[in-house]
Design a protein that fits this description.
Two copies of one chain form a homodimer. The first copy, chain A, has three helices and 13 strands. With 184 residues, chain A is α+β, with helices and mostly antiparallel strands. Chains A and B meet through strand 1, strand 2, strand 3, strand 4 and strand 6 of A and strand 1, strand 2, strand 3, strand 4 and strand 6 of B.
Amino acid sequence: MTEQPPMRWTVHGERTIYDSAWVRLCLVDVEIPGRERFEHHVVRTPYSAAGTVVHDPDRGVLLLWRHRFLTDTWGWEVPAGMVEAGESPADAAVRETIEETGWRPGPLRPLTTYHPINGLCDEAFHLFLADGAEHLGDPTDPTEAARVEWLPVPALRQAVADGQLRDGLSLTAVCYALAFASLD
Amino acid sequence: MTEQPPMRWTVHGERTIYDSAWVRLCLVDVEIPGRERFEHHVVRTPYSAAGTVVHDPDRGVLLLWRHRFLTDTWGWEVPAGMVEAGESPADAAVRETIEETGWRPGPLRPLTTYHPINGLCDEAFHLFLADGAEHLGDPTDPTEAARVEWLPVPALRQAVADGQLRDGLSLTAVCYALAFASLD
């Protein structure tokens, strides 16, 4: 073990470069004690996001096959989206699952909350695991995915190993559930 | 299974709102076919990042206990950082481990590459698993962490369950390794 003195950067101030309802770009005036002082770019989002690993012992895990224009990639994703004003992360997780898949998730339990890029962006992701789901009908938001499908857990493990889950929220949620929730 | 027509947003153009060596903020003119057309905020980074789960069967996993000013949180993180110009992700993973921990990682194998916030930011994270490590001395970059420590795998699993890994790259890397690399 290597012991070092407690290390915490000092924040002297912050100025906004650009602001909008979706994203704020700031420069934070920070100092590494005894070393250097500089301006650090920070992206602030006024919202967080919530996503759900919906698991049914017979069907597997409920996934969307979708394209992302930003990275120009296709991949499997769990249902997920923005937590709206006045909504709890769990309520958002249920709403997004219904809208995007047409399935109402069973009882939810929180897996974890984390910061996907904590050196650059303050956005938080809330992950949930749902026990089963009830089919309501077609997705009410069909703009998200090309396909909605239950993937058996062995096929899901193979999809992760094949690099077919490149979306961070989905990859983290699925790996967390595989490591901690004994999906098999 | 719910079948839908292939769904891919159309990109009509992109304009830059702010540019720097660290981050570029853009508005992308996108259209959801048959639905709506709007401008979508996108954060582009000219770099990617690489991080490593360094695992030793006797010691456990090599971690940093550090503070993040952006989220004002303390947590365990794996050694990680930016891939520099002309550097491969694997070379960056080795360099960052040495700089931040003072340990040279053993043979690396790639776990996966993913996009931590693929609806907002194009940054990619490259994850590696290293087999053991050799102690070289003190970290050459001691500004990153308050403590460098080997955590036995059961303690690491407990730390994840206790919410002590809120840094996305670290959480994803550790959960991926726990689910796919049989660390125990």
